[in-house]
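Request: Mind sharing a record?
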Amino acid sequence: MFSNTIVGTVAHLKVVEHDGEFLAVTLYVKDKSNSQCSIKFNNNNGLLTAYNNGTLVVGQQLILTQWEVRINSIRTHYTKDNALVPLKYPEISLVRVYAVIGALPMAKQTAALAAAEVEPVIDELPF
């Protein structure tokens, strides 16, 4: 499903306290057949510091390498009213992730900027 590198978009970031402080990260990733899944992992060093500094934000690109990555679990369904319901985006939980911060999210256009029309300026050309 993935090549040696996983490139995803940060969907959710949350600082969690459990035997110390760590950052819970959820990425949305598309594979080569354009199917989408979510990847979840925890980080307590570089990404946590980047999040606390405001350097890591939702919508930003993260690049994961598979050098020492281990799949902890794969979840495709959940139980609701004693019936299995498929998840919209299957979840893969990873451990021992090495992540590199990628591109920032694209800036949204403001309504005023999008609504403003630019009129062409026609200058007389000397011949």
Notes: The chain has one domain: 5-115. The chain is about 10% helix and 50% strand. Residues 62 and 101 are 5 Å apart (CA to CA).
